[in-house]
Write a structure and sequence with these properties.
This protein is an alpha+beta fold. It is 32% helix and 23% strand.
Length: 57
């Protein structure tokens, strides 16, 4: 059985124009940060029907 769980999604910047860009600002990124950004990108694609470009700076 699949349950819907609510959770907070945080991203540092979203830039929308012709291209959607999600930016996560980190002083040091690890694998978990990259996985989280990819998951947020998939959520953004599902909600907005636009595949975003992802960036960690």
């Amino acid at each position: 059985m699949k349950r819907d769980l609510e959770s907070m999604v945080g991203i540092d910047a979203v830039i929308k124009d012709i291209v959607h860009i999600l930016v996560e600002v980190k002083s040091r990124a690890d694998v978990g940060d990259i996985i989280e950004l990819v998951r947020i990108g998939k959520l953004c694609k599902r909600v907005n029907s636009a595949k975003p470009k992802l960036a960690i700076t």
